[in-house]
Amino acid sequence: MGLLDGKTGIVFGVANKRSIAWAIAQAWAAEGASLAFTYQGERLQKNVEELAGAFGADTLITPCDVTKDEDIARVFDEVGRKFGRLNLLLHSVAFAPKDALEGRFVNTSREAFRIAHDVSAYSLVALARAGAPLMTDGGSILGMSYYGAEKVVPHYNVMGVAKASLEASTRYLAYDLGPRKIRVNCISAGPVNTLAARGISGFSAMLKYYEEHAPLKRNVTPEELGATGVFLASDGSAAITGQVLYVDGGYQIMGMQASEPASGA
Ligand code: 0WE
User: Fold this and answer.
1) What's the rounded mean pLDDT across residues 85-111?
2) Confidence grade of residue 74 (pLDDT, cut at 50, 70, 90)
3) From the CA of 95, how far away is ligand 1's center (Å)?
4) Average pLDDT, the chain
């Protein structure tokens, strides 16, 4: 008996086996959900087909550029034909041009700002609108955020502003879709070593910083993000909507670090 038996879902944002989207998808599937996967560009097609192919004929795998309304319309049309309805939607998609994550925020170009918000925040609204008509028995929509939405994280820059927009969009979508029993929440994850994180200079230092400063003295694992994803998709969270849930070893609660280890450490 899985917590998600009989439910269908769609997953946006698998790039490879280290993707947070893949961790949550595996956890959803292990609880009995049937899943559709989209991939961004031919570059990632093989990766996603190899990963999601393991779920067999029950799975739909199709391309989607979340900045293209025609792609989004086609994807949900295909989901409607394959599954007839939808319960779960995972948005694990973000992009800002690399130079915008390297320089100073004050130098963010109009175009980099536009792209970051289009790919990383507006896409949640577009996917929710297109997916909601298939969520006839209620649903759970889940996005991924990061602490840089709330406080300044050096170099996160325009992505922090886009994540703030994603979190606010989560609240407005939760308000609009609540009467249809569709819940909308975000997981704000601590740093995870994914393709999106690779190439970000100082990322390993950031993992170490969390190990030292988070109350749990360690980083979050992909499996733990999967487990929280199952919680937010299942009836255990039936009365939770519009929330940002921190899954970060407690890092977000800290206001200052002690110069000595906490008592009891
Ligand atoms: O949301 C993210 C990263 C998303 C991301 C990553 C890239 C790398 C390659 C968005 N756009 C791009 N564009 C690229 O060209 N994270 C939460 C991971 C992350 O990224 C950071 C972080 C953390 C944490 C960037 C700077 C500082 C901290």
Assistant:
1) 97
2) very high
3) 7
4) 96
Work out the end-to-end distance of the chain between its first and last CA atoms, rounded to an integer number of angstroms.
40
Task: Report which protein residue has its CA nearest ligand 1's atom 15.
Answer: 98
pLDDT-derived band at 262, boundaries 50, 70, 90: low
Find the CATH number of the domain harbouring 221: 3.40.50.720
Q: How far is the CA of 197 from the centre of ligand 1 (A)?
A: 5
Domain that holds residue 46: 8-249
Task: Report the predicted TM-score, pTM, of the whole model to 2 decimal places.
Answer: 0.97
Residue identifier of the C-alpha nearest atom 24 of ligand 1: 191
Whether 138 is in a domain gets the answer: yes
- Say how many domains are in the chain: 1
Answer yes or no: are the C-beta atoms of 76 and 53 closer than 8 Å. no
Nearest ligand 1 atom, CA 147: 17
How far is ligand 1, taken at its centre, from the CA of residue 211, in Å? 19
Distance in angstroms (rounded) separating the CA atoms of residues 35 and 112 = 32
CB 150 within 8 A of CB 133: no
